[in-house]
Amino acid sequence: MVKEEAKSLRVGVSRVQERTAKLEGTSLYARSLIEASLDPLVTISPTGKIMDVNRATELVTGIARAQLIGSDFSDYLTDPEKAREGYRQVFSKSSVKDYPLAIRHVSGYVTNVLYNATVYRNETGEIEGVFAAARDITQRKRAEEALERHARMLDLANDSIIVFDLTGRITYWNRGAEALYGWTRREAIDRSIHVLLQTRFPAPFEDLRRTLFSEGHWEGEVIHTKRDGTEVIAASRWTLQKTPNGEPSAILEINNDVTERKRVEKELQNASLYSRSLIEASIDPLVTIRRDGKIMDVNRATELATGQSRDTLIGSDFCDYFTQPRKAREGYKQVFSEGFVRDYPLAIWHPGFTEQFPLRASILVD
After folding, report:
1. Three-state SS for 69?
2. Which residues fall within 8 angstroms of residue 152, CB to CB, at 6 or more apart?
3. Which of 98, 243, 336, 356 is disulfide-compatible with 114, CB 3.0–4.6 A?
């Protein structure tokens, strides 16, 4: 009987030792996972005292584990009150997600983090503390700040600057676009750019798109409709944006309002055509001459008087078409020296006949 009890006791002890070894193995495994984490991990008591940390927490604070344990969790954050409010929320709500804080290193370097935290309980279900993991977002924060700086700079531009994704959905709309088209940034974001602006292209859109994707950019004039219904002619430049892997991701469009310029150009063109028609309607030979005596322009009457085409006359020497070249040269030089000549007698030489006419000329000021 005693032998059986002793044997049973030995078996019991062996099983306890086995379970203890397994628990120790499990604990060591869990600890190795915690220490292997690149994210700072910390457990916090209900009073806000640090109960445990991993190596990543030592590195981000610059303080040894032994010194951290037992100290106040809030002491290592740039905003202690916000830190205290954060772990209090965990105790009241059982968890928090993406809670923004900034950890201060003993050197003064600040690491921006997002904390995810949850309560942990003992065997009886009572809350013993908070387990919190911090994800370093310093690089992301810097990138966001850089984007904000760029956005502010783009807002200073007079040009309309728009970014839209490959489906045409607007993702960025600067103040220049607000001023030109009349829609605010909030109203324009997520709208389809070509539906919103009722874009009219100089060529089929698919042709433009092919050029953009093959060459990385496209430039031309488009017609847009503003919020008030008026049309605007825009000198438009498109650039294809790509991911670090080289995949097309978005399109940057910069538009400059050239409506007024196009109107003035059209008026000048019409005025030029009108002036040209008057010049060509004249029965008198008309010619413009450079200071070196080369012909710059002629009308139809000059072609008839000389028997030469306009293309032949332009660039040739004015004096070559007169019976007295030296006198012709003296005549136009007199114009350059005195400003004009009137009734200066010369004779144009034609292959078929010679015609006398008085030269009348004045300086053309450009």
Report:
1. coil
2. none
3. 98
User: pLDDT digits over 124-162, tens only?
Assistant: 888 888 888 888 887 767 765 665 666 565 565 568 889
pLDDT tens-digit series, residues 315-337: 999 998 888 889 989 888 888 88
DSSP string for 210-247: HHHHHHSEEEEEEEEE-TTS-EEEEEEEEEEEE-TTS-
- Residue 326, classified by CB atoms within 10 Å of its CB into exposed (0-12), middle (13-18) or buried (19+), is exposed
Nearest of 90, 105, 85, 124 to residue 40 by alpha carbon = 105
For residue 2, with 0-12 CB atoms within 10 Å meaning exposed, 13-18 middle and 19 or more buried, which class applies? Answer: exposed
Round to whole Å and give the CA distance between 29 and 47: 29
From the DSSP assignment, how many helices (H) and strands (E) are in the chain?
Answer: 13, 14
Contacts (Cβ under 8 Å, ≥6 apart) of 60: 40, 103, 105, 111, 134, 136
Asked if 135 contacts 116 with a C-beta cutoff of 8 angstroms, the reply is yes
